[in-house]
Specification:
β10 (250-254) and β11 form a beta hairpin. This protein folds into 2 domains: 3-81 and 165-271, 3-Layer(aba) Sandwich (Rossmann fold); 90-164, no CATH class. The chain is globular and about 55 Å long. α5 packs across α6 (149-163). The chain is 33% helix and 24% strand. The protein has 10 helices and 11 strands.
Amino acid sequence: MAFALSGCSLVHANGLRALDGVSLRANQGERLAVIGPSGAGKTTLLRVLGASLRPGGGTASLLGAAPWQLARGPLQQLRARIGTVHQQAPIPPRLRVVSAVLAGRLGRWSTWRALASLVYPVDIGGARAALDRVQLADRLFSRCDRLSGGQLQRVGIARVLYQAPDLLLADEPVSSLDPTLADLALSALVDNATRQGATLVASLHAVDLALKWFPRIVGMRDGRVAFDLPAAEVTAELLHALYASEGGRLPVQDVAHGNALGALPQSAAAVARPGCL
C-alpha cells in the first residue's frame, strides 16, 4: 500500500473546510489523476499525502508509516521518499538550474555532500539527463531567475525525476506549459513512475490530460471525493455534475490555444482522443 487515508478532514484557520471525511488509498505503482473545480481540495489532499500538512481528523498512512506518529528524524526520512512537483516551483531565483535539480536528493545526502554540491555540483551528468527528459538540458548552468515560468515548472519536474521517489505527487504540474510540452512532461512523469515502480498522483486542470495519461480518476468537489473510477468508466454525466459550479463547461487542454475551457463533449471517452477538442 502506497498510502491510505481514512476519514481525513481539515479546516483552515479562516474556517474553510478543505477536506471533509476523505478516504482514499492506492497500491504501490498505481497512477491516479485528481480532478475537480477550483477550491475542491485537490492541493490540500496532495499536501496531506506529502506529509507536509496534518489532517485535523481521520488517519493517514504513507508508505507504510503513520507520519504524525514519527519522531523528527524518521519523518524527514519518510519525506525524502516523497517527491512533489509544485504548480510554482519553490526555487531560489539566484540558484543555478543544475543545483536546483540536484536538490531533489538533498534529503538522502549527508550534510557535507549537500553543502559541497552547492559549491561544485556532484552529479552534473545526472542533472543533465533529468533536464533532457523535459527538453531543458541546454539551460543546465543558467540561473533560475533567467527562466520563464514554464521553464521553471520543467526544472521542478526534472528535480523530482532526479529524486526518484517512491511516491510522486504533482500539483498542476503542466499549468504553465503549452500542449506539446505538457504532453512531454506528463510522459516523463508517467515513464519515471513506471520504471521506478512509484505511485504517481497528479492534480490536473485539464480533464483530457487526466483521461489520456491516468488509468484511475478521482473527482473532488467541496473537499469530498465525488467519484473514484477507472478512466474508462468516467462518463460525461459525472463530469458535468463535478464541474456544475463552473457553468457546465469542461476544462480541457485546447490544442490550438493552450489551456482553455472547452465545451463538454458528448462522451468522456471522446475527450482523450486527438481531434475531439
